[in-house]
Amino acid sequence: MHKIELHGVVKRFGQNTVCDGIDLTVEKDQMVCLIGASGAGKSTLLRCINLLEPIEDGEIYLDGEDISIPGLNPQRVRAKIGMVFQNFNLFPHMTAFENTMLAPKRVQGLSKSQLKSEIEELFERFELADRMHNYPDQLSGGQQQRVAIVRALAMKPEVMLFDEITSALDPQLVGDVLDVLLKLKSQGMTMVLATHEMQFARQAADKVCFLKDGKIIEEGSSEEIFGTPKRPETKAFLARALK
Amino acid sequence: MPIPEAAGMTRRERYEQKQRLKSLLIAAASTVCVIMALVILVPMTPGWEKVQKSFFDGTVLAKTFPKLLDAFTVNVMIFTWSAPAIAILGLLIALARDAKSPALFPLRIFGAAFTDVFRGVPVILTVYLIGFGIPGLGLPRPWNSPFIWGSLALVLTYSAYVAEIFRAGIDSVHPSQRSAALSLGLSERQVMRDVILPQAVRNVVPSQMNMLIALQKDVSLLSFIGPVEIFRQAGVFKSLFANFTPYVGAAIIFLIVTIPATRYADYLMARQMRERR
Amino acid sequence: MSKRILVAAVSLALMATNTIAGGHCAADKTLTAGKFTIATGNPAYYPWVLDDAPESGQGFEAAVAYAVAKEMGFAEQDVVWVRSSFDEAIQPGVKNFDVNMQQYSITAERDQVVDFSLPYYTAPMAVLVGASATDTKPTIAALKSLKWGAVGSTTAVQKIASIIQPTNDPLLYGDNADVNAAISANQIDGAMFDLPTALFLSAVMIEGSKVIGQFPAASSDNADQFGMLMEEGNPLKACVDEALTSMINSGSLASIEAKWLQDTTGVPLIK
Ligand SMILES: Nc1ncnc2c1ncn2[C@@H]1O[C@H](COP(=O)(O)OP(=O)(O)OP(=O)(O)O)[C@@H](O)[C@H]1O
Ligand SMILES: [Mg+2]
User: How many CB atoms lie within 10 A of CB C14?
Assistant: First the structure.
């Protein structure tokens, strides 16, 4: 059974078809990278998987269960799928710790005392322990993104979605955040990333999907896509992106 | 020839210091001129003596000021119970107007109609219509009190404005915050309560401060339906002494309260502008 | 003998003619020689004129009009009634009446453009109560427990505070209409107006209300005083004033007032 499976997913915004019949499988513990030009539909696809956008057609399965049935309560699904965005992730009126505690407390009904040690451990693990009680505006962009990841992890998700989480960062901060992703991968987390970091995708991805105009027009291992791309569009895109 | 760098200042810094001093002097001089002109010229106008007697009569002021302060406690009282009610109702209306589920469509319509009506009608009319109209239906005392219904009129009108400000505040929260919160598995309600509202409310504190200041003044409109608050008390004194000084006294009392509040609101506003940048 | 009788008869007749023609004072000063033209409202109201028929002499102003006419030497049939609108008559200009009686308050502004006689009536303060308080006795003690209202700019405010000293703070309003609204809404029990206003309000404006008492008129209240309105500079004013003065001195004016404004209206003095 695949961890995530998409069948002919169609998403439209008005007349604009942003996902145009997407088929995608993600295996357990796999890291899948979505690459493609701006506007190709990467973010939208991730939002569809997390049920933040209702889809017009197709199905999405999580562990073989159709989670795209209209009317299904999305909360239970979202609790299993963590997601980190490009920016404005953290709630500015809460400290890093409070940000992290909010969802476990509200969704799982756990108390602060139950959560404290666990969350402290997470912050420790991602070298953020000294930042735990800072407000987001007291953190660097890279630290903010790492806290956002920690916050998602606190819900013990089975899958993590990352939407260009480094693209709003100063170049020298990008490395720290990508290191966190590598760490997660080594711990066996199933991940789907939309990214413009081609070098990273090339090194770390188990599978790379190239999106254009809402379609996955080529997919394969990172060696296949980056080494021997078949489609001219892919070649053109990579030529530009790797320059 | 190299210019000696006195007191460790650069040429540019010295120039700027000189400029600052110059503009400070100009500002001081012009302020003094204007005040001098007012102090000297106004008393020279032909009507000044009459105006002074009827607007700035010290003995009338001394006689009426304590009673005006007394009456002002009525304003404070009405304000004290109206303001929280406005905050709550305003927030509820704002939430009703932003209700997303189709089942709540009637609520949304109601919210829209509410704000349209109460923002569209002058406060004084609402005070009249509700203050006399509803008790006129035959409510028994004390439920027909003008304090209750007049306050309700203020609450309804101000909630309509406050609701719009809250909505603007809700809109000012970046949509990613909603996505981020939803993606953590929070329900729509939890997202609103824990994530959106706290930020929205904080964003609109300065604007709401201005509403409070306006409310503080508009409490006086209740005088039209009976309560003897400071404006009415000043009017009674005006008739009694045939002198407008009590109104000046009332204005002074209002200013004592509203000037600090206004300065504080401006300060909050300026601070927020800085934070945004 | 017959001669003397004749002389006496002639002189008597002359005297009579003199009297009928308006006597020494008003002669040649009226609009129509020998007639005294009095204007009233259209229509004229109770208790000032009963049944809108001033010719009957019934009602306070009608009664005063005939008494003044008589005092000035006019016979009943020489009194001519005309109608005028209230606002029109206080404008400057030529008038179609000698005097006009319809509760004109004497004010300094009006006195600039028209003339007023001495006051024939000083309006006392009266207590108007709403439907729920009509049983209140006309005593200060009973009035204390009422919820009071008044127009904030009038002397009624001081009167309530100093004479009645009510247990509850009064509510104050901007004008009579608002006080009416408050009485109608039962937000206040009673309000103080001058008697004419109170009578008008209870008869016409506020259903179920009643004027339960009046205070003795006191000129210190700068109360409303009604005067007969005349064209500016009308020489008749001296005659009218003379007549009124003698009626005041003889007490006949007071008894007319008692008859039509206390007994007839049934508004007792407050004790
Ligand atoms: N909420 C929305 N309403 C309407 N159109 C939208 C919405 N979100 C995205 N789109 C449109 O969908 C298309 C795909 O957007 P999307 O953000 O998924 O692209 P992307 O591949 O993530 O691009 P980028 O690399 O710039 O992030 C774009 O044309 C965008 O304008
Ligand atoms: Mg994107």
Answer: 10
